[in-house]
Amino acid sequence: MATYDLVVIGTGPGGYVCAVRASQLGMKVAVVEKNATLGGTCLNVGCMPSKALLHASEMFEEAGHSFAKMGVSVSSPKLDLPAMMNFKQQGIDGNVKGVEFLMKKNKVDVLKGTGKILGTGKVEVSADGKSQTIETKNIVIATGSDIARLKGIEIDEKRVVSSTGALSLDKVPGKLLIVGAGVIGLELGSVWKRLGAEVVVVEFLDRILPGMDGEIAKQFQRILEKQGFAFKLGAKVTGVDTSGKTLKATVEPAAGGAAETIEADIVLVCIGRVPYTDGLGLKEAGVALDNRGRVQIDPHFATSLKGVYAIGDVVAGPMLAHKAEDEGVAVAEIIAGQAGHVNYDVIPGVVYTTPEVSAVGKTEEELKQAGVAYTVGKFPFTANGRSKVNQTTDGFVKILADAKTDRVLGVHIIGIEAGEMIHEACVLMEFGGSAEDLARTCHAHPTRSEAVKEAALAVGKRAIHM
């Protein structure tokens, strides 16, 4: 019987990062993976393939609409969708091989099969009708999440698809109906919109991007509508008739009222994700779940069963790969007797559309609800020199600071490369910095990041270029 210091179940960003850090700290480590490839949802059917298609579709759009005004004459671009999907697959393969290399480099054993916790210190790994029991001092559950499903709507991944199916369509749909105006739906919608689809988004709430700053969400919706997105907010899809040549979705007002029918070639169900705990034997082993099916943990990631920990999408908190990675490092350090820690107040979120949307820290709504007095500094990209000369002026930077201490509490950006620009705010907030600190930091000219400095200056009502 094999014996380890740590067995990690799942090799997504949380799981494989946890394994690498534990190995660095001198532990004998194994990972358990039920899928054919390592990397979890993120590398195989999530973050990475979607970014490949976002990038490729942006290039297609640029060639067709932006090159001419810059004095670059090219014939009208033709879409070769199989080649684009091959570009996506090359990216997936490269990243998956990278994780395999990391496992070998760090002497982490990869056990292929389905993991089941038999109790403290015991994991059963089953594959091809055979099973073996692994002994280990510690277990980390890093099994991630699965797509959330809508009652009464069956996902076949051909015509009614989840994010997984939407990454592998064999032709551009004439009309794409997206259920849910969250991050994943808007990203995938923007891919197919750029490639020629008509896109309609139905959202139960009266706004897009639930959880993001309200002002940011409103402006971003206007930008997407300018790009050709159609939104039906405060509405719900109650059924999809798949019997005809085109799909017929029944859409009703969320508050009740007369239903309407929307025809579509593809329906994409994107209403969020749920923790993946199937087959882990958690109930039998005595691992407690909360009322939303997430594994319950204490502040040190420990579950109710001694020696068993959990991280990532399977526990509470934002379902983000980088949050899982930080938790993976922290729990490995805790198991090694160190002081692993995650600062949940400084976890950035990004929507990888064009333009991008990024955020870290509190929204205005959260500060109002908590009764925190705050000041706001905003700066539009229309007043940023680099954005002007590149004609990429959509969006703005918004900084929220404590009215008494000037400490930055939240930063929100809509704009080209917003996902890259957010990180100076993250570093500032990690060190408890103020808007004044950011305003007095020299920024290279001409860069889009100058808009961040100007927004910090605007907190003190002294922006220079506005």
From TrEMBL:
Residue intervals of the Pyridine nucleotide-disulphide oxidoreductase dimerisation domain: 347-456
Reactions performed catalytically: N(6)-[(R)-dihydrolipoyl]-L-lysyl-[protein] + NAD(+) = N(6)-[(R)-lipoyl]-L-lysyl-[protein] + NADH + H(+)
Sequence ranges assigned to domain FAD/NAD(P)-binding in this UniProt record: 4-328
Gene Ontology CC terms, in alphabetical order: cytoplasm
Active site: H445 (proton acceptor)
UniProt keyword Disulfide bond present: yes
Enzyme class: oxidoreductase
EC id: 1.8.1.4
GO MF annotation list: dihydrolipoyl dehydrogenase (NADH) activity; flavin adenine dinucleotide binding
GO biological process assignments: 2-oxoglutarate metabolic process
Positions contributing to FAD binding: K51, G115, T143, G144, S145, D313, M319, L320, A321, H322
Chain positions recorded as NAD(+) binding sites: G180, A181, G182, V183, I184, G185, L186, E187, E203, G272
Cystine residue pairs: C42-C47
Cofactor note (record): Binds 1 FAD per subunit.
Keyword Protein transport: no
Assigned keywords, A-Z: Disulfide bond, FAD, Flavoprotein, NAD, Nucleotide-binding, Oxidoreductase, Redox-active center
SUPFAM superfamilies: FAD/NAD(P)-binding domain, FAD/NAD-linked reductases, dimerisation (C-terminal) domain
Entry-linked InterPro entries: Class-I_Pyr_Nuc-Dis_Oxidored, FAD/NAD-bd_sf, FAD/NAD-binding_dom, FAD/NAD-linked_Rdtase_dimer_sf, Lipoamide_DH, Pyr_nuc-diS_OxRdtase, Pyr_nucl-diS_OxRdtase_dimer, Pyr_OxRdtase_I_AS
Pfam families the UniProt entry points to: Pyr_redox_2, Pyr_redox_dim
Cofactor(s) named in the record: FAD
Family: Belongs to the class-I pyridine nucleotide-disulfide oxidoreductase family.
Record's miscellaneous remark: The active site is a redox-active disulfide bond.
Designated name of the protein: Dihydrolipoyl dehydrogenase
Organism: Bradyrhizobium sacchari
